[in-house]
Amino acid sequence: MLRDTHLKINLDTLIANLEIVQSHLSKKTEIGAVLKANAYGHGSKVIAKTLMAYGLSYFLVATLLEGIQLRNEDSRYQILIMGHTPDHLLEQAILKNLELTIFTYEQGLLIHQLAQKHKTTATVHIKIETGFNRLGFSVNEKLIPSILKLSLLKHLNIKGIFTHLALRNKNADENQFQVFQKVIRSLEEHNVEIPLKHVCDSIGMTLYPHMHMDMVRIGALLYGLQGEEKFIPGIQQILKMETKFSHIKILEEDSFISYGMRKEVKKGSRIGTLPFGYADGYPRALYKDGFVCVNGDFYPFAGVICMDQCMIDLGNANFESDDIVSIIDTNQLSISKLAKKVQTNKNEFVSSLAARLPRLYIRHKKPYLISYEMLGETHELY
């Protein structure tokens, strides 16, 4: 391990979470695994490879770069870019055999023309705007004629059609679903059948079984990040973060610690310096009421968290430099509780975890692989 501070990611738990999700779906509903934002900070390359070995190969990303990264790993992956791909980059997406999201007729026509140029067929999913007001075809008198024209283009394969719930409340979500259903019915009346219809993300999947349709887009649940709306028993967080002490000292007098000297610590206290900081994606604001765990006991931060280091107040406790310090764990150090402390959500918290953190993957209950994303290297341990 090239750094004491690292993430520990349990692939056994990942697969267990996937099996639980599958148990809540009918056989006709496919899972699209959301691997955007580096698989929510967990490492998209290893997560994709693990899921592929289990039999899941449909991966959803946000950007062209994320799509290319996965495509370079395996030509067998089915990859959908759910976000906007600018017109001048569409050709690269087509050449990489990436599925594209479109939300204007002009986009679809251009993709068709580019695919025709390369004597291939481009695959697209049509995004419908039902109330989120982000991306999507507006539902108006132009919508159905536009999709009908696109469906006639020989070099365009309309594989999917989808929308995204705003998750405001049950009534608003149902209204969005009904708008989407009306669009589907109108297309079917014109003999346009689109194979993959999808609405639900992880939260939508847990709340609305009647909206599962042909595919659900599952990200957070795979990584054990449950919404507060409804819990699925058995889903567990797959990520931990650990480090070791870089320095421990006893204060010889009452002292102030870190930037701004905002924290006063009494004479005789032990101060432990830890080699991680906000550049690792750990929120700086947690210095106020955050803590770490050593040997089952919790210790608060002493002063402001720095870019690369932080200090904790050990009081009278005595530790060795090789003792393991838990930064993110379950229970009191869970991602959910830490995110609440800084008034953000779990997804932002984990997707901010930096590439400079080594990722140690656990498989079959033992260390399996180390990924150094900054170096572009992975090292199998068995």
Percent helix: 25-40%
Strand content: 25-35%
Overall mean confidence score, pLDDT: 97
Terminal residue distance: 15 Å
Tell me the Rg in angstroms. 24 Å
SS elements, strand count: 21
Structural class: alpha/beta
Reading side by side through the largest sheet, how are the strands ordered? 16-15-18-10-1-19-20-21
Overall shape: it is elongated
**How many H/I helical runs?**
11
What do you see in this structure?
It is a single chain. The protein has 382 residues and is an alpha/beta fold. Helices cover 27% and strands 26% of the residues. It is built from eleven helices and 21 strands. The protein has helices spanning 11-23, 36-40, 44-54, 64-71, 90-95, 105-117, 143-151, 170-189, 202-207, 335-341, 346-351, and strands at residues 6-10, 30-34, 58-61, 78-81, 99-102, 122-127, 156-162, 196-198, 215-218, 239-244, 247-250, 255-257, 263-265, 270-274, 291-294, 297-300, 310-315, 324-328, 359-363, 366-372, 377-380. The chain has an eight-stranded mixed beta sheet. Strands 8-7-6-5-4-3-2-9 form an eight-stranded parallel beta sheet. The longest helix is centred in the middle third of the chain and has 20 residues, at 170-189. It is elongated and about 80 Å long. It starts with 5 loop residues before the first strand and ends with a strand. The model has no long low-confidence stretch (mean pLDDT 97).
In short, what is this structure?
By secondary structure, the protein is α/β, with parallel strands linked by helices. It has helices at residues 11-23, 36-40, 44-54, 64-71, 90-95, 105-117, 143-151, 170-189, 202-207, 335-341, 346-351, and strands at 6-10, 30-34, 58-61, 78-81, 99-102, 122-127, 156-162, 196-198, 215-218, 239-244, 247-250, 255-257, 263-265, 270-274, 291-294, 297-300, 310-315, 324-328, 359-363, 366-372, 377-380. It starts with 5 loop residues before the first strand and ends with a strand.
